[in-house]
Amino acid sequence: MYQLLKKEGAARRGQFDTPHGSVQTPAFMNVATAGAIKGAVSAHDLADLKCQVMLCNTYHLHLRPGDKLVHDFGGLHSFTGWQGPILTDSGGFQVFSLSKLRKIKEEGVHFSSHIDGRKIFMGPEESMQIQSHLGSTIAMAFDECIENPSPYDYVADSCARTVRWLKRCRQEMTRLNGLPDTLNPQQMLFGINQGGTFDDLRVAHMQEIAELDLDGYAIGGLAVGEPAEDMYRIIGAVETFMPVNKPRYLMGVGTPVNILEAVHRGVDLFDCVMPTRNGRHAHVFTWEGIRNLLNEKYQLDHAPIDEHCDCPTCRRYSRAYLRHLFKSGEMLAMRLCVMHNLYFYNTLLERIRAALDEGQFEAFYQTHRLVLDKRI
């Protein structure tokens, strides 16, 4: 259940209540692809990093260790130790990114495992069954992820297929949630808006899936190489037609400024591998912009990554020490910088929520939108 607490322009301040706890929105969902944050960060660390939601990958967990094994362990909450809300993606993005290995049919997709090449089939029903085994709080519908740009007619056909698949997902989830051995009989379902960069297809698709009264709605198929202006335009076009009383999730986004711009346009939830991936390569986010800790100027620098940050890394370590760890190939370097970046992202969303609470979001937005993506 989503409660809209306050608005400032299109920006929304809300609370999303789930079977595994409440989420204060706007919120960033921390990506734990295989049940762990890349960079040696565990589910137990996330509580210290202001994390509210953990996101796990259906495709990867299906292949390894296997969703039935996770089910036998009591689901992802028992398996990973994270007790808050967990969102699982449908596996669709991973399946469709393996373009040379897959074949799309109406019933679903035949593809080959990227691990050992074995043949696998996944359709709407299979995706829901896997996510039910994982016991996640929120399951994402199985959709077709197309390339940008794609021909108009193909995108239109793909949108129609995604709607048909969404209806099958909803029917299968209803069946699964009624079974006696289901780990989470209150599992929620989010639908995904597609349509490439065509405004009319995006709007028509959103109107059609909004009628299904799902638990939440995502905007998919963006942040895949198109200009940021196209992404912002699509969000603006679709937002008007998204249910007001349901959470809105922009998938795979993004930089701190992308998030700030999307909140400004009415989005509630985000996820992205950027804070973890960048942290593993010594790129860290700060309130003054982005630092590359490998730069020689940090060799003798006693300051923390960000003097305005109170994360566990900034409280204890200098830029010089972190640079040394990277230069020495120490795994601790990745762990400490990933922890900082996740803390920064979650603090950014915390400050956005506070600004909305105080009616100061527009001022916050104007102050930070030109700074956060700047290279220091």
From TrEMBL:
NCBIfam families in the record: Q_tRNA_tgt (TIGR00430), tgt_general (TIGR00449)
GO terms assigned for molecular function: metal ion binding; tRNA-guanosine(34) queuine transglycosylase activity
Organism from which the protein derives: Solibaculum mannosilyticum
Residues holding substrate: 89-93, 143, 194, 221
The entry's keywords: Glycosyltransferase, Metal-binding, Queuosine biosynthesis, Transferase, tRNA processing, Zinc
Pathway(s) it belongs to: tRNA modification; tRNA-queuosine biosynthesis
GO biological process terms, semicolon-separated: tRNA queuosine(34) biosynthetic process
InterPro entries attached to this UniProt entry: ArchSynthase1/Queuine_TRR (IPR050076), TGT (IPR004803), TGT-like_sf (IPR036511), tRNA_ribo_trans-like (IPR002616)
Protein name, per record: Queuine tRNA-ribosyltransferase
Gene3D superfamilies associated with the record: Queuine tRNA-ribosyltransferase-like
Reactions catalysed, as given in the entry: 7-aminomethyl-7-carbaguanine + guanosine(34) in tRNA = 7-aminomethyl-7-carbaguanosine(34) in tRNA + guanine
UniProt region (RNA binding), positions on chain: 252-258, 276-280
Coiled coil region boundaries: none
